[in-house]
Amino acid sequence: MTRLSGKIVIATHNLGKLAEMQKMLAPYGLECVSAGELGLEEPEEVGTTFIENALIKARFAAVESGLPALADDSGLCVEALGGRPGVYTADWAERHWYEGPEGRDWFMAMGKVEGLLCEQGPDVGRAAHFACVLALAWPDGVDAVYEGRVDGTMTWPPRGRLGFGFDPVFIPRGYDQTFAEIPPADKARISHRADAFAKLVADQFG
């Protein structure tokens, strides 16, 4: 079995995801470099599932860099919306030219979800979950996939400033705070990414 060691590419241009993943990998002696630092392009995410898109990004970064690559594909799935926004989570937060390549309007995206829920009436169910797939790929074509999930409910208005994306409107099960109100160290233990990462660690370093 191929295992991780040495230098690895974090196949993302999202600074929030990059910081989380670097912190998670820190205890395992890996030298992490981002796709952005290497000047790699972002491949077109044409998959219809989190697994497909995570593999597209990981395989592209591995081939282009000649190094093992780790990619994340994650999103918010709201039951009353048929699982939307799902794999299109980032697309619901449109880019603005004046905010640069990192700029997405997440408040607008949160408003879209809330608006669609409100259209269904005051008794609409607010169950939701964040899904995460971590894909590892090596330049020789070997790859591995790890899936994570955290369940919770949607709330409005947004609360908290500690998270990113849809964090301010998502309350994880068993908590009364949103992901954006929960300290990052606590979120890191219970998040969908943490769930997927625990499975990666068990497989790669266990």
Automatic annotation (TrEMBL):
Entry keyword set: Hydrolase, Magnesium, Metal-binding, Nucleotide metabolism, Nucleotide-binding
Catalytic activity, EC: 3.6.1.66
Catalytically driven reaction(s): dITP + H2O = dIMP + diphosphate + H(+); ITP + H2O = IMP + diphosphate + H(+); XTP + H2O = XMP + diphosphate + H(+)
Location of the active site: 73 (proton acceptor)
Annotated cofactor note: Binds 1 Mg(2+) ion per subunit.
Pfam families in the record: Ham1p_like (PF01725)
InterPro entries: dITP/XTP_pyrophosphatase, ITPase-like_fam, RdgB/HAM1
Annotated binding of Mg(2+), by residue: 44, 73
Subunit structure: Homodimer.
Protein known as: dITP/XTP pyrophosphatase
Native species: Novosphingobium humi
